[in-house]
Design a protein that fits this description.
With about 325 residues, this protein is an alpha/beta fold. The protein has twelve helices and twelve strands. The strands form two sheets. Strands 1, 2, 3, 4, 5, 6, 7, 9, 11 and 12 form a ten-stranded mixed sheet that branches. It has a two-stranded antiparallel sheet with strand order 8-10. Helix 1 links the parallel strand 1 and strand 2. It is globular.
Length: about 325
């Protein structure tokens, strides 16, 4: 169906799991963005079977979101693809529940994609809660980037954000904590691959878009606070396993299994060095760095976020006992 004058230009797409403490600020920022954009928009919130007050908060917030409350936990790639399928807007702004748009960010992202018809995605500059910028755009992973990281040259050779603080520029990929997607372009490649349960899904999406002739822009004038709550204990270990599992999946899919295997020792090297340094430096955890080493060298071992979600779903389906 062709767009009409009243069709949304932008669909704000929020995915969350037990993030009730962050969700009100996320939705408040979206409400302000709607007023600043002065063009038709809609808001979709997908709740990934939260056990806190996230669904109630989303439904009662004055931003007027349409809430999709899943009965079972699914992966982030499946969540974002569901929202891209549901979106009525020409553009979909993918956000995490802990993402807080700075005023005017949406307008800058939309303007970047409207100026460049071959750009499929535009990513914002991500800020920490204290206002300092965090990396948000990178080169596509491969053997060369793995070597650069092994020799601690990642900031110069791999990270692409922060190079031109005021200028929109082409990059390989941007983080999906705040990523504006041209829905029609994404639809041509089937959106995100659900095999990436979490982590790596947006990298694979933007690589497949690049292979199809599209590209990604980094827009420093658009800013978004990313709270990025850190997990500790078993939750942290599961995230580390999931991260490196999907990095291996990406390398094997786009460069072949041999390259993925060859990258392992080089990818592990910086974490080996950090493990050794953490044994003598106060305030650092050697164990956490060693988890990275083990996950890189044996990416198909251990339980990640996917297994935690499967266990959660199995518990939901277990018959209640008297």
């Amino acid at each position: 169906m062709p767009p009409t004058a009243q069709s949304p230009l932008v669909t704000f797409c929020v995915v969350g799991t037990n993030g009730a403490e962050f969700l009100p600020a996320c939705l408040d920022a979206i409400a302000l963005e709607q007023r600043l954009l002065e063009r038709p928009t809609e808001v979709l919130v997908l709740d990934n079977a939260s056990t806190d007050d996230s669904v109630r908060i989303a439904r009662e917030h004055p931003v007027g979101a349409r809430v999709i409350a899943l009965p079972r936990r699914e992966g982030k790639a499946a969540n974002d693809s569901r929202l891209l399928d549901e979106a009525s807007g020409r553009f979909a702004l993918l956000l995490n529940e802990d993402s807080e748009l700075r005023p005017g960010a949406t307008k800058e992202l939309v303007a970047a994609l409207e100026r460049d018809p071959k750009a499929a995605c535009a990513g914002a500059a991500l800020l920490r809660p204290d206002g300092h910028e965090q990396p948000s755009a990178w080169r596509f992973p491969g053997f060369g980037t793995t070597l650069a990281q092994a020799f601690l040259l990642h900031k110069a050779l791999v990270v692409q954000s922060g190079k031109s603080p005021r200028q929109t520029r082409r990059v390989d990929w941007c983080q999906s904590a705040c990523l504006l997607v041209r829905v029609q372009a994404s639809a041509t490649i089937g959106h995100l691959d659900p095999e990436y349960f979490v982590y790596g899904d947006e990298v694979d999406l933007q690589r497949r878009l690049a292979d199809a002739g599209w590209h990604t822009l980094h827009v420093p004038a658009a800013q978004c606070i990313h709270h990025e709550g850190l997990s500790t204990g078993d939750g942290a270990r599961r995230r580390i396993i999931e991260l490196h599992r999907n990095q291996e999946r990406y390398l094997a899919a786009h460069h072949g299994p041999a390259v993925a295997l060859a990258c392992r020792p080089f990818a592990a090297l910086p974490y080996v060095l950090r493990t050794l340094a953490a044994t003598v430096l106060p305030g650092h955890s050697p164990r956490r760095y060693w988890w990275h080493v083990r996950a890189i060298l044996a990416p198909h071992h251990g339980e990640g976020i996917r297994e935690a979600a499967e266990a959660f779903n199995a518990e939901l389906e277990r018959p209640a006992t008297a």
